[in-house]
């Protein structure tokens, strides 16, 4: 037990613990000043990133200096400090307290040996601590030892004890199964209080009686009892106790033993995430938890991942809010937050709540699941500790598409024009000019020029400390990543402070964090950058000093097309964005009676975002000009306030009934406002402030506010750890609905039965330690419907709203432009979940499987209204239904083989989401080749089906004779009237003799049938290896980039596949003939561009070396790990596009619309502590 008052600390060891404490204090007597001074040479570096990093570190070290000055005072302090005492008829305990208060010392002693209740009187004037202690403990049999400010009291050895010690002295070492020494292991003589702890090398020396036994223990390992014979030395190996691994999981507003959980929860430890080098916490989660999808829209700088728990939860047909409605609620240290601004190194654990039983406590925001994140906090009674980690790496594009060079481009263009019957006199001039003199043209590899090798770096520094009743954790980080495309990249930095203080029945604490993200983003002229890079003609020059801006493009007078010089756009256009994120929360906790905890929590999260887009004047070739510079800027502020009051009561009755009750109130308010402005016509490109604009001014702004008020509760009960029941509810009131529909009630219940705890299972317990069945049912809500749908919407300053008065010119006005949907209410998702958890062989193998159904009802959908109302629009009603079904499995194995220790984690998940109904039964959403409709799966591919290539005119004639229709005049109209040999044959699916959208067929979905995560952790002696695999199987992908590179109805560059186009001499190909204009529409949306999207990727590979403790000790460190690694090292796939994983969003899964791929990174790093 420890207790602290102010800056004083007393460590008291209760009976049964070790009495030899001096070694322990040597372990924590860090030479802080020496280690900090080793950092100063870094200040000589002059690069920008390092100066920023050092600035953060300076503030951080300043905090450490202020908070840990006492640990650097040295032994001289005890020799120099003097004090006076005058205390009559008091206790030793009171004198110790007085010494701690006046001298800033702290004491350690064993209550079995030191009688602190002994009555004493002491009067000293200006005496040293040694003189005072000599007088205080004179003739008491108590001795002391002073190290720095630590004073250890212990009982003087008696002759009898000495005799015992002379009987036997044992020297030993305590190690784990890999032979690594265990520091701080307890070694206790059985039946006595005689004991010690191991030093930094795992060694100990203890005097014991003959024929005795030693009890050796350490947290996380099985306690071992060893009988001592005649030997004087011994090596003791402790076995890791897998029962202690992951015993507690975080649930809403509390924690629960893993064996007691009856709902669906998956936990991921921060230790696993810390070995994935990334500044993006969301990215590190891919493949870590079954049922959690991590989707990437793009690998461009500034892009972030989107999370989805158990598939699609809601579908909206009018406002594009599908992503918001399908994203999980993220709770960071009890407060709604944003993972994008969270440093992965700060994460202690993540819990994914996946069913109604676990998520219903969050009510209206939990329909799409909940992700609970705990950040690192300090621990009580812990010595100050500093950690540092960092990595450096290079990133690059993992793949480039094969496109034509200049000579190949000319060859395909000639072939296409010839097949189209175009006379050579009408050919573009660049063809003849190139054949006459190729040197007047470029041969630009636009992908090579646009993609770059980027440098990435990240640094983390952390500090933790704890006393008997307080703890603190402080961390800071900095990261900078160059984008894989030229002139792009992003930068992040921030800090986090967590602390807790306990005073009697009160406990309070806070969490404060700040982070800043800024990025130089992609810039373009209205088209995807990948589209422009792959389609840009290789004939065009990258640079041209004669052009405004200095960049090249299509050559004037040559008839060249110009997709756009994307290098120029990125370099000339200033497109930046940044966000400052501040999160602050504090709590006050009171325990009036044992087991009852009342807690008040208050928090505020604030986002300050700004963006800037300045497009200067430029001339990039003959086809791309901007003669008037323009500027757009925006500022926004988001504020989220939360107040919560909870009461939690835990009670165990007769050691067999375990009851936990929770009741809480919550009030949340969200405010948002923005201001935007734009202008153009600047004097020159250097004068690019908004005040310099001369024309086309525009100013706009938005201000919104919403609130949520809630009552929630939960009952958790288990009987003898066999039968479990959990029931919870949340009653939410939201400002997003009209009166009468504001409140929603969301209950849930779950049952669990751990058969392995039944008496009849006793003989199987050693093999199957847990066999738990789980069942849950409940309702969750969704309020993400927009803020003001239930009231009329007014619009101002539009062309339709200009009113003339008295024949004068028109005036601005307001008008209602959207019909109010006053009857809209909560969307509700009803969950059914069944699962089983099995643990075998002392938890070496952990298995879990579950299946679920979630039905969403009352989804918002649009219903047309009569024009007689005066509105040419629709009204929102709660008529939509969606059904998602799925299953998940996970297997975790902890194994050892010789000196090798390994953990294997395999998880699989599957889901399918079907739209069951909408207000309009003929509802159809189309996005290119994708369709979502009533009765179908979300995001199906519907395309024309091909049937090979016509090899000769006879095949064309035969096909058109058999397929077609008669028009109203009785004339035969062939199915493909302009088809020629080399064109694609398309199937008339409905047999009406025409090719139209009704002939499209379903060929699959962009949603994977199975998603797989496979995570490997190996350790052998001082080496370790981490490998994280992820894969999707059973999905289709529409390769839009292939469509762009093989289509013949434009005159941009082609893929090299075009060189393999059909000709009479090259009939064995699946590439149709090259023909300008594509009269047969060979490039229409068809099975030609739908590919197998299966892939398996090695997301992360890391090989580390841990310096042995004895060498760390010589360097003043507690640990040191160095490693090398790579991300996305390889991908096994047949997909021909850039990346089979990008371009994924709700309703558009699998549609690869020229998304920038994720980079491949190679890096090295280190981590150490002291």
From TrEMBL:
Q: What does the record say about its membrane topology? A: Multi-pass membrane protein
Q: Where is the Secretin/TonB short N-terminal domain?
A: 105-156
InterPro entries per the record?
Beta-barrel_TonB_sf, CarboxyPept-like_regulatory, Plug_dom, Plug_dom_sf, Secretin/TonB_short_N, TonB-dep_OMP_SusC/RagA, TonB-dep_OMP_SusC/RagA_CS, TonB-dep_rcpt-like
Give the record's keywords alphabetically. Cell outer membrane, Membrane, Receptor, Transmembrane, Transmembrane beta strand, Transmembrane helix, Transport
Subcellular location per UniProt equals: Cell outer membrane
Subcellular location, principal: membrane
Q: Name one Pfam family in it.
A: CarbopepD_reg_2
- What GO terms fall under cellular component here? cell outer membrane
> Which Gene3D superfamilies does the record associate with it?
3.55.50.30, Carboxypeptidase-like, regulatory domain, TonB-dependent receptor, beta-barrel domain, TonB-dependent receptor, plug domain
User: Per the UniProt record, which residue ranges are transmembrane?
Assistant: 55-77
Question: Where are the annotated segments for Disordered?
Answer: 1065-1084
- Spell out the PROSITE patterns in the cross-references: TONB_DEPENDENT_REC_3
Protein family? Belongs to the TonB-dependent receptor family.
Protein's UniProt name? TonB family protein / TonB-dependent receptor
Species per Swiss-Prot/TrEMBL record: Phocaeicola vulgatus (Bacteroides vulgatus)
């Amino acid at each position: 037990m420890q207790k602290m008052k102010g800056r004083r600390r007393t460590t008291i060891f209760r009976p049964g613990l070790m009495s030899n404490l001096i070694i322990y204090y040597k372990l924590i007597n860090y030479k802080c000043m020496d280690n900090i001074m080793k950092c100063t040479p870094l200040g000589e570096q002059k690069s920008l990133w390092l100066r920023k990093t050092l600035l953060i570190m300076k503030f951080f070290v300043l905090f450490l200096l202020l908070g840990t000055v006492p640990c650097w005072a040295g032994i001289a302090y005890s020799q120099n400090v003097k004090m006076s005492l005058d205390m009559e008829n008091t206790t030793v305990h009171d004198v110790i307290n007085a010494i701690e208060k006046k001298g800033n010392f702290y004491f350690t002693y064993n209550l079995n040996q030191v009688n602190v209740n002994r009555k004493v009187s002491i009067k000293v004037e200006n005496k040293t601590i040694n003189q005072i202690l000599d007088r205080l403990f004179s003739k008491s049999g108590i001795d002391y030892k002073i190290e720095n400010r630590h004073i250890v009291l212990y009982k003087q050895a008696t002759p009898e004890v000495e005799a015992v010690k002379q009987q036997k002295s044992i020297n030993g070492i305590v190690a784990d199964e890999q032979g690594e020494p265990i520091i701080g292991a307890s070694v206790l003589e059985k039946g006595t209080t005689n004991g010690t702890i191991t030093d930094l090398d795992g060694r100990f020396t203890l005097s014991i009686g003959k024929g005795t036994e030693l009890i050796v223990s350490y947290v996380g390992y099985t306690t071992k009892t060893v009988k001592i014979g005649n030997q004087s030395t011994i090596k003791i190996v402790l076995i890791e106790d897998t029962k202690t691994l992951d015993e507690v999981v975080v649930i809403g507003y509390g924690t629960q033993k893993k064996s007691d959980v009856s709902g669906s929860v998956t936990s991921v430890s921060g230790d696993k995430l810390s070995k994935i080098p990334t500044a993006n916490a969301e990215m590190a989660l891919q493949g870590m938890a079954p049922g959690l999808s991590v989707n990437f829209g793009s690998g461009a700088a500034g892009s972030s991942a989107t999370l989805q728990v158990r598939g699609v939860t809601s579908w909206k047909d009018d406002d594009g809010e599908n992503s918001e409605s399908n994203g999980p609620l993220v709770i960071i240290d009890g407060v709604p937050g944003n993972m994008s601004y969270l440093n992965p190194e700060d994460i202690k654990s993540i819990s994914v709540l996946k069913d109604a039983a676990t998520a219903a406590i969050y009510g209206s925001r939990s329909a799409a699941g909940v992700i609970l994140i705990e950040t690192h906090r300090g621990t009580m009674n812990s010595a100050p500790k500093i950690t540092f980690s960092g990595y450096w790496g290079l990133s690059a594009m993992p793949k480039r598409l094969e496109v034509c060079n200049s000579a190949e481009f000319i060859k395909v263009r000639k072939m296409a024009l010839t097949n189209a019957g175009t006379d050579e006199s009408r050919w573009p001039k660049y063809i003849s000019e190139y054949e006459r003199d190729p040197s007047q043209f470029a041969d630009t590899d636009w992908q090579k020029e646009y993609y770059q090798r980027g440098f990435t770096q990240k640094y983390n520094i952390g500090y933790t400390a704890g006393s008997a009743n307080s703890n603190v954790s402080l961390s800071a980080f900095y990261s900078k990543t160059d984008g894989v495309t030229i002139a792009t990249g992003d930068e992040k930095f921030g800090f986090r402070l967590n602390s807790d203080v306990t005073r009697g029945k009160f406990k309070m604490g806070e969490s404060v964090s700040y982070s800043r993200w800024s990025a130089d983003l992609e810039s373009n002229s209205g088209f995807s950058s990948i589209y422009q890079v792959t389609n840009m003609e290789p004939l065009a020059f990258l640079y041209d000093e004669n052009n405004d801006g200095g960049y090249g493009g299509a050559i004037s007078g040559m008839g060249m097309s110009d997709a756009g010089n994307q290098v120029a756009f990125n370099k000339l256009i200033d497109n930046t964005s940044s966000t400052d994120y501040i999160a602050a929360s504090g709590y006050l906790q009171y325990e009036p009676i044992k087991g009852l905890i009342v807690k008040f929590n208050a928090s505020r999260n604030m986002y300050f975002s700004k963006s800037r887009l300045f497009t200067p004047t430029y001339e990039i070739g003959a086809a791309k000009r901007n003669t008037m510079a323009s500027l757009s800027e925006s500022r926004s502020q988001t504020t989220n306030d939360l107040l919560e009051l909870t009461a939690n009561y835990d009670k165990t009755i007769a050691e067999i009934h375990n009851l936990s009750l929770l009741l809480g109130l919550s009030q949340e308010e969200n405010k948002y406002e923005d201001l935007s402005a734009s202008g153009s016509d600047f004097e020159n490109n250097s004068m690019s402030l908004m005040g310099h604009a001369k024309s086309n001014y525009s100013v706009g702004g938005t201000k919104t506010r919403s609130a949520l008020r809630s009552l929630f509760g939960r009952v958790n009960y288990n009987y003898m750890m066999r039968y479990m029941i959990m029931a919870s509810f949340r009653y939410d009131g939201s400002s997003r609905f009209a009166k009468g529909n504001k409140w929603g009630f969301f209950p849930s219940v779950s049952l669990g039965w751990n058969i392995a705890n039944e008496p009849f299972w006793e003989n199987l317990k050693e093999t199957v330690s847990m066999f738990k069945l789980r069942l849950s049912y409940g309702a969750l809500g969704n309020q993400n419907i927009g803020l003001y749908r239930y009231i009329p919407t007014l619009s101002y300053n539009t062309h339709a709203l200009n009113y003339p008065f008295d024949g004068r010119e028109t005036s601005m006005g307001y008008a209602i432009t959207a019909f109010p949907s006053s009857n809209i209410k909560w969307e509700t998702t009803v969950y059914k979940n069944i699962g089983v958890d099995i643990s075998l062989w002392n938890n070496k193998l952990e298995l879990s499987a579950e299946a679920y159904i979630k039905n969403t009802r009352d989804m918002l959908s649009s219903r047309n209204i009569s024009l007689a109302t005066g509105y040419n629009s629709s009204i929102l009603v709660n008529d939509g239904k969606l059904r998602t079904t799925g299953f998940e499995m996970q297997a975790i194995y902890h194994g050892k083989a010789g000196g090798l220790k390994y953990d294997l984690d395999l998880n699989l998940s599957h889901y399918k989401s079907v739209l069951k109904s909408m207000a309009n039964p003929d509802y159809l959403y189309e996005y290119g080749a994708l369709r979502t409709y009533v009765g179908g799966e979300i995001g199906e591919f519907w395309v024309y089906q091909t049937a090979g290539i016509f090899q000769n005119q006879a095949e064309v004639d035969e096909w058109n004779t058999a397929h077609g229709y008669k028009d109203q005049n009785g004339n035969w109209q062939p199915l493909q009237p302009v088809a020629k040999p080399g064109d694609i044959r398309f199937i008339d699916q409905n047999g009406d003799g025409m090719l139209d959208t009704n002939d499209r067929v379903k060929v699959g979905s962009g949603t994977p049938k199975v998603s797989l995560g496979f995570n490997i952790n190996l350790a052998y002696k001082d080496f370790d290896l981490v490998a994280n695999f992820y894969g999707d199987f059973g999905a289709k992908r529409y390769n839009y980039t292939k469509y762009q590179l093989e289509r013949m109805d434009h005159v941009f560059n082609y893929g090299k596949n075009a060189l393999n186009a059909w000709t009479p001499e090259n009939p064995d190909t699946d590439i149709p003939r090259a023909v300008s204009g594509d009269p047969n529409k060979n490039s229409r949306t068809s099975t030609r561009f739908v590919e197998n999207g299966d892939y398996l990727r090695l997301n992360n590979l890391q090989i580390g070396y841990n310096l042995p403790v004895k060498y760390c000790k010589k360097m003043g460190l507690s640990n040191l790990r160095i490693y090398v690694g790579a991300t996305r090292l390889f991908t096994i796939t047949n997909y021909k596009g850039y990346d089979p994983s990008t371009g994924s969003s709700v309703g558009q899964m699998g549609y690869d619309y020229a998304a920038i791929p994720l980079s491949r990174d190679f890096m090295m790093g280190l981590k150490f502590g002291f």
